Each structure stands twice: as structure tokens, then as C-alpha cells.
């Protein structure tokens, strides 16, 4: 059994509070009766008043309230077991988060454009597993391999240029870290989608791609930016304060380097696509995925849980309906039982 909305269990604390309130009310009534007259005389003046009925009404009301709360919690019970088999590929998205990705030669910026592209790619996936890597001067694992696309999008939107402390662009580090995401023993197809402006401040990206090819990885590179290039705005509270400068205090102009990205893709028999047109990128990725063999990577026994809230709500309604007929005066069968020594 599992609870769908366990947070509502805290409402059960109302039950003991109502019991305490009832006991206090009974104490207050008795106290006032003593103040205004003799208790035996009060009983004779209201001979049909029952001691048992108020307690019964309280019990019925508390049971109904408890049932309503359990209905809100919505307990679920597994009714059957089924085998779920998935076929797909393992995909790692390597996102360039260096400061050059803040350039706005592609609206709204290279980084935001990259996020949009990856989000749209995720939207058209089926049962593939995905992971996310961020890189600049070094690489950083953002999200391990998962099938939870909602979580992946959440991590994706939180990515920024401050997530990696080491600045620059190291494509080889991104490829090396991404390769660790894939299980060497798994026969599942492995795809790395690398998004960058192609500016590489390190050496060995092509060698890293060749090593990835030996591991059975295919790399698709997506270039974001323009060959004309752009400056890198440095903002504070959304306002541009200055532009990125180099060691000679010259304003940096960053340009898309399609050649380096194409070289990396060719090393693994992958492909390169310009990311400035999202529709073209999605079509390219869709065709590429259709040409990659999908294999079964998961066979899990899963319980099909069914909600049980309707039973609790139905029970609560029945109790509340019965409560209408419970008057506070004595009934014949209760009088015969004499549960509270009510006979003279």
C-alpha cells in the first residue's frame, strides 16, 4: 500500500482535539448545572435526556471525519503485477556553460537557445534514458542517467555559467565525463549530444572523440552562435554593466567554430547540425534517432496501484447520514440496557 497525499495525515490531530473539546464542554455543562440547581433535580426535569447519545454522536462524527481525511490521503493498493519492458537508447546531453555562451548573436542568448533545443529534443523522446553534463574549463555531472524527463528539464533550466568554476571551453573533458555515464556491460546504444559554440581552449578533443568511438559512442554536435560573432555582455540585476575583456583589456568577440564541432562528430561517425534553427535541429535529431538501433534496457516488475479513496468517502457519507437520526434523548433499547445507570 502507498499513500498518494500523505501530507493530509496531519489533519488526524484534529480528532484528539475534538475529544478534548467535548470533555471540556461536558465539564462546563456539569459545572453550570451545579451552579443553578441540584443535579438530581435537573435529571428529573429532563428525564428523556440521554448520557449515551452525545457520546455516540461524537464517535460517529469522529469516525466520519477520520474517513474523510483518509479519503484525502487516498491510500492505494497494488492489485496486480506486470512486467514493463522498455526499448530505447542512452543519451547524454553535454551543455557548454562557458561565458562565451552568454553572447546574444542568437536570441535570447546562446545558452538559453541551447536550453530550448535540449528541452524540445526531450519532448520528442519516447522511452530513452537521458543524462546531463555541464562543461566549461572542466566538466561537471548535472544529472545521472534517468527516465524522469520532468526532473531532467528542471535541472536543465537551472543551469548557468556559474555552475562550473573553471572558465574556458574544454570539449575533451566534456566527452570524457559523458563516456562515464554509459554502462560498459550494457548493449544499449550510446549517444552523446554535445551543444557548444565550438570554441575549444584545450587540446585533445578529437582524440577524446576517437576514444569514445572505441567505446561504441556516437556523437552529434550542435553549434550555437554565428560565424560573425558577438561580444559577451556581463549583466548585473539584468542590466548590462560591461563586456568581457581579454588579458590585453580588449573586448572579446566570440565566434561559432563549426569546424571543431564537425571534426568531433566525424570521429564517431556522427553528425553536426547548426543549432540556430530549432526546427531543423529537431528534424535532424529525429532522423538520427530513427537510424540508431533501440534495445531493451529495462524489465521491471511494477505494481499497478489503484486508488481507494472512494471507500472512505462513502463510509464517511453513510456515518454523517446516520448522525442525522441520532437524537440526544433516550431510546427504548438503550434504556433497557441501562448502560449508564440511568434508571432510578
Structure summarized in a few sentences:
By secondary structure, the chain is of the alpha/beta class. It is built from 11 helices and 13 strands.
Question: Could you walk me through the main structural features you see in this protein, from its secondary elements to its overall organization?
Answer:
The structure is a single chain. By secondary structure, the chain is of the alpha/beta class. It has 11 helices and 13 strands. The strands form 4 sheets. A 6-stranded mixed beta sheet has the order 5-4-3-6-7-12, sandwiched between helices. Strands 1-2-13 form a 3-stranded antiparallel beta sheet. A hairpin with a 2-residue loop joins strand 9 and strand 10. Helix 3 (52-73) runs antiparallel to helix 10, helix 4 (110-123) packs antiparallel against helix 5 (149-157) and helix 4 crosses helix 9 (278-290). The longest helix is centred in the first third of the chain and has 23 residues, at 14-36. The chain starts with a strand and ends in a 7-residue tail after the last helix.
Radius of gyration: 35 Å
The largest pleated sheet is described as: 6 strands, mixed
Low-confidence stretches: none
Strand pairing plus helix content: what structural class? alpha/beta
- Give the strand line-up of the largest sheet: 5-4-3-6-7-12
Helix content: 40-55%
In what range is the share of β-strand residues? 15-25%
Average of per-residue pLDDT values: 83
What's the total helix number? 11
- For the secondary structure, the number of strands is 13
Distance between the termini: 52 Å
The helix/strand series, from N terminus to C terminus, equals: EHHHEEHEEHHEHEEEEEHEHEHH
The general outline is elongated
Amino acid at each position: 500500500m502507498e499513500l498518494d497525499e500523505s501530507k493530509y495525515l496531519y489533519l488526524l490531530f484534529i480528532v484528539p482535539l475534538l475529544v478534548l473539546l467535548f470533555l471540556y464542554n461536558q465539564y462546563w455543562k456539569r459545572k453550570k448545572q451545579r451552579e443553578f440547581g441540584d443535579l438530581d433535580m435537573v435529571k428529573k426535569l429532563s428525564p428523556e435526556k440521554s448520557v449515551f447519545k452525545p457520546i455516540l454522536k461524537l464517535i460517529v462524527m469522529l469516525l466520519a471525519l477520520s474517513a474523510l481525511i483518509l479519503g484525502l490521503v487516498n491510500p492505494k493498493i497494488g492489485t496486480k503485477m506486470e512486467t514493463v519492458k522498455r526499448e530505447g537508447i542512452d543519451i547524454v546531453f553535454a551543455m557548454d556553460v562557458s561565458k562565451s555562451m552568454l553572447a546574444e548573436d542568437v536570441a535570447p542568448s546562446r545558452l538559453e537557445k541551447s536550453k530550448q533545443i535540449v528541452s524540445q529534443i526531450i519532448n520528442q523522446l519516447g522511452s530513452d534514458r537521458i543524462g546531463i553534463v555541464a562543461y566549461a574549463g572542466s566538466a561537471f555531472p548535472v544529472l545521472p542517467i534517468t527516465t524522469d524527463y520532468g526532473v531532467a528539464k528542471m535541472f536543465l533550466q537551472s543551469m548557468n555559467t556559474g555552475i562550473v568554476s573553471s572558465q574556458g571551453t574544454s570539449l575533451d573533458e566534456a566527452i570524457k565525463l559523458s563516456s562515464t555515464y554509459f554502462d560498459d556491460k550494457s548493449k544499449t546504444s550510446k549517444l552523446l549530444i554535445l551543444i557548444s559554440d565550438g570554441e575549444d581552449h584545450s587540446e585533445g578533443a578529437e582524440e577524446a572523440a576517437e576514444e569514445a568511438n572505441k567505446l561504441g559512442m556516437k556523437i552529434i554536435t550542435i553549434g550555437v552562435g554565428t560565424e560573425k560573432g558577438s561580444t559577451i555582455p556581463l549583466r548585473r540585476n539584468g542590466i548590462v554593466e560591461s563586456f568581457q575583456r581579454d588579458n590585453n583589456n580588449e573586448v572579446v568577440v566570440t565566434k561559432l567554430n563549426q569546424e571543431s564541432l564537425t571534426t568531433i562528430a566525424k570521429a564517431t561517425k556522427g553528425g553536426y547540425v547548426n543549432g540556430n534553427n530549432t526546427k531543423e535541429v529537431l528534424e535532424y535529431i529525429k532522423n538520427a534517432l530513427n537510424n540508431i538501433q533501440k534495445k531493451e534496457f529495462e524489465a521491471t516488475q511494477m505494481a499497478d496501484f489503484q486508488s481507494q479513496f472512494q471507500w472512505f468517502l462513502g463510509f464517511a457519507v453513510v456515518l454523517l447520514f446516520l448522525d442525522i437520526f441520532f437524537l440526544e434523548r433516550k431510546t427504548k433499547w438503550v434504556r433497557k440496557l441501562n448502560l449508564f445507570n440511568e434508571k432510578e
